[in-house]
Structure formats: structure tokens, C-alpha cells
Amino acid sequence: MSTGTSGDYWKDRALPSVFKHDLLKRYLAQFGGMLSGQSHDKRVVYLDGYAGEGRYENGEPASAELALRVASYFRARHGVTVEGFFTEAQARSFQRLQDVVEGYRRQGVVAHARRGEVDGVLDSVVRRAAGRPLFLFLDPCGLVLPQDRLVDVLARQRPDKKPATELLMNFSMMAVWRLGGHVRSPKGNETSLRRFDEVCGGAWWREYFAEAAAPSAQAGAAEDAIEAVAAEYARRLARRTGMFVQSVPVSHAPHKRAVYRLVFATRSQYGLWVFGDTVARARAEWWKTLELQETREDPDALFSVASVLRPDPAVVEKGAGAARRARHGYPGRRGVAHPLPEWPSGSGADTWTGRFQKSTVRLCPCVRSDSHHVSYGPSSSSRSSTSAWSWSFSPQLVTISSGSKAPVSLRT
Ligand SMILES: C[S@@+](CC[C@H](N)C(=O)[O-])C[C@H]1O[C@@H](n2cnc3c(N)ncnc32)[C@H](O)[C@@H]1O
């Protein structure tokens, strides 16, 4: 199984990375802003475990430089330290990464580039994060760390809600697809299968493909098996770590299956809610970039495919709301209890784009709304109690407040 990048990967940013990077930079900024107060020295620790080159050949920032920019911003504006660790196994990529990191170190950003396997630096990063919030970004080209290893860090070494520990991880659907093919093939590579057993924390996933490859299997069964494996992976990670786990599909084009899913884990309901909002914004960026690409490629076209295929967010929300009601019922307390719409693969329901206000309203059962003010509470009588949260928004700003906490404002 290949683990390095190939071909044109570092030439410029491909569409999946547009989504991934927009999500990463926005969420990391929120993480630093929200959680630095949990440490005594206003410091959060960040690990980009598969950092790559840090910057594309066309000069655009890749994951490492995006994090360094966030760190630089927090240092200058808020006196917050985002201490970054960036690991890369491949010599050539590491050389370039190191140059990028060095540029920011000279400006005073606290950052470390490490050549080698992420597994070898993980424990020292966790030690460095003692008493501080920790964000792990694991973005391999192929298979990620074994689930037992992740559980060891998340559930054993960092079991507490505070200081926070969060994970954003690339779960490669392409790798699952390839490995699925090995399951029933007489030429199936047992070493690769075992390696994926480790990633999944057991051989349970093989059964999905054994069924999918049976003569009686329906068309599309293998594709469904990939989705089912990804969903079960997330469920197991949630169960074994006690964290909330959400994953979102990332693809090259509308109506194309996901090349990977970004798996997010947190112990904070509010973090989950912020993640949902960030996903929506990153998805909007994905569509915008697709449309720009199309216009560049064919400036004379009457309309772009993206503009035709982009689903109507109102329809998507309606479907997502119904699916969630059927699955979970409504949240029992606080407006952020089930903040996320469902994100099945494919172009439809993964477009929760630009509907921040309406999503918020519809996802909360007991919302009172007039055109510009929305408030949430379990019932009108308990709304005045200290546990109630209230929401108000103008078209640009959403403010969430509870009786005992300072209001939080988010730009829409
Ligand atoms: C998908 S690329 C990273 C992209 C980067 N995170 C970004 O978004 O800009 C994955 C990188 O991980 C590196 N890599 C693969 N296995 C690794 C390991 N075990 N430890 C550290 N780096 C590894 C590869 O050489 C490759 O550069």
C-alpha cells in the first residue's frame, strides 16, 4: 500500500483539498480561540502528523502553512500560542516542509518540523500537551494509524473533557475500496488485509466485503460496503473513546463517491456544533472553486455544471431533518444536542451550505422565531431557567448565550 504522494499532488490544490483545507483552517482558528483559556499559559498544541510539503508549488498554502498562519495570527493578535508539530516521513517533502516551518519560526511562531513516522512523535506531542488543549490532524495518503493506537491516546492518555482533545482524520475510502477487493480474491494480499485490520481495530470489516462479493450480491453492493465500513469505523471509535464522532465525505466532483471521509472527534457538544457550521462553510468554498474551475476551463459556456447540480439547500435540509428525526428523535436539552445534519455520500445531502440560520432553526425543536430573532429553550416556562440557551441573529451574526456564560458570537 502506497503511503507517499504521487505525481502532481503538490503542484496545486485539488478539489478535495479545497474542502479539507478550508475546514481545517476555520476549525483550527475556532479551536485556538475557544480553548486556549484551558491552559495556564494560553497555549494549545497542534499536530499535523502527515504534513507533506507544507506549501504547493504554485505558492498556495497546504495544511502545514495554513496552521502556521493561524498560529501567527493568534500570536500577534491575542497572545495565544498555537504550538505546532509537523511530521513528514518522506525526505524530499520533509526538506520543503522544513523550509516553510523555518520561515514562520523566524517570525516567532512556535513550530517544530520532524522527519519520520507520526507514530514515533505522537507520545512526545501528547506529553507536551499535558495541561493544554490538543488538536490532532492526521491526513495520510493511505491508511491512518491503528485504531488501538488512537484509542490509547484519546481514551487512556487524554480521557478528560478539559483540557480538550480533538481529532480530525482522513479515512481513505479509496484504500477501503482497494482492500475490499482483496477480501475474496484468491490473490488477496494478507499483509495488506492485516494492516487494515489494525486500522479498523479488528477484522470485522472483512465481512462487509465477503457479503458484497458473493454471487448473490446486488449491483452497487461493494460501494455500499465501503460506506458501511466507514460508518462502523466511526461508531467504534466513538464507543471506544467516549467521544462524539462525526464524519463528512470529500469528493472530486458532484455525484462522485467520496475519496475519503474526514472523521472528527470531540468531547464537546459545542465543538460538534462549530464543526457542523465549519463544514457548511467549507462545502460552500468547494462549490465556489468548482464553479471557478469550470468557468476557467470553458469561459464561453452558458452555465456551469456546478450551478446546475448544486442542490437546493432548502430541499437538502428538509431531507436531513426528516432523516434525523427518524433516527434520533429530537434533542432532549440544549439547542446543540444534535446540531449536525446527516451527511450521506453523493452530492445531495452533503450540501448544508449557506443555511446556517435556517439549519439552526430547524434543528431545534422548540425554537421561537420572528424574522430576526430566534430563541431556543426546552419549553417557554423553562426558557427562563439558567440552563436555557438563547440564540439571536442578524443576517451576519449569530449570538448564543446562556444564563451563566458569556455570549458567543459567530459570523455567518
Ligand atoms: C496526503 S499527504 C499530506 C497532505 C497535507 N496534510 C496537506 O493537506 O497539505 C500525506 C503525507 O504523509 C506522508 N506520510 C506517509 N506516511 C507517513 C507516516 N507514517 N508518518 C509521517 N508522514 C507520513 C507522505 O509522505 C505524504 O507527504
Task: Describe what you observe in this structure.
There is one protein chain. The protein is α/β, with parallel strands linked by helices. The protein has two domains: 15-286, Rossmann fold (3-Layer(aba) Sandwich); 287-411, no CATH class. Helix content is 45%, strand content 17%. It has 13 helices and twelve strands. The protein has helices at 15-35, 63-78, 91-106, 118-128, 147-157, 173-184, 190-200, 206-212, 221-241, 269-297, 305-309, 313-328, 356-363, and strands at 43-48, 81-88, 111-115, 134-138, 165-172, 244-250, 260-266, 367-369, 374-376, 389-393, 397-402, 405-411. A seven-stranded mixed β-sheet has the order 3-2-1-4-5-7-6, with helices on both faces. Helix 3 links the parallel strand 2 (81-88) and strand 3. Helix 1 packs parallel to helix 2 (63-78), helix 6 (173-184) crosses helix 7 and helix 8 (206-212) runs antiparallel to helix 9 (221-241). S-adenosylmethionine binds next to strand 2.
| Ends distance | 42 Å
- Estimate the global geometry from the Cα principal axes: globular
Order of helices and strands: HEHEHEHEHEHHHHEEHHHHEEEEE
Ligand types: S-adenosylmethionine
Indicate the topology:
Layout: H1 15-35, E1 43-48, H2 63-78, E2 81-88, H3 91-106, E3 111-115, H4 118-128, E4 134-138, H5 147-157, E5 165-172, H6 173-184, H7 190-200, H8 206-212, H9 221-241, E6 244-250, E7 260-266, H10 269-297, H11 305-309, H12 313-328, H13 356-363, E8 367-369, E9 374-376, E10 389-393, E11 397-402, E12 405-411
Parallel strand pairs: 1-2, 1-4, 2-3, 4-5
Antiparallel strand pairs: 5-7, 6-7, 8-9, 10-11, 11-12
Helix pairs in contact: 1-2, 1-10, 2-3, 6-7, 6-8, 6-9, 8-9
Bound molecules: S-adenosylmethionine (SAM).
Residues 3-5, 17, 50-52, 62-63, 87-90, 93, 117-118, 139-141 line the site of S-adenosylmethionine.
